[in-house]
Amino acid sequence: MRIDVITLFPDFIAQCVAFGVTGRAGERQLLSLHGWNPRDYAEGNYRRVDERPFGGGPGMVMLIDPLRAAIAAARAADPAPARIVYLTPQGAPLTQAKVRELATRERVILLCGRYEGVDERLIEAEVDEEVSIGDYVLSGGELAAAVVIDAVARLQEGALSDAESAAQDSFEGGLLDCPHYTRPVEHELGRVPDVLMSGNHAEIARWRRREALGRTWQRRPDLLDEPALSKADHQLLNEYRARFAEVGDDFDG
Ligand code: ADE
Question: What is the pTM of this model?
Answer without folding.
Answer: 0.93
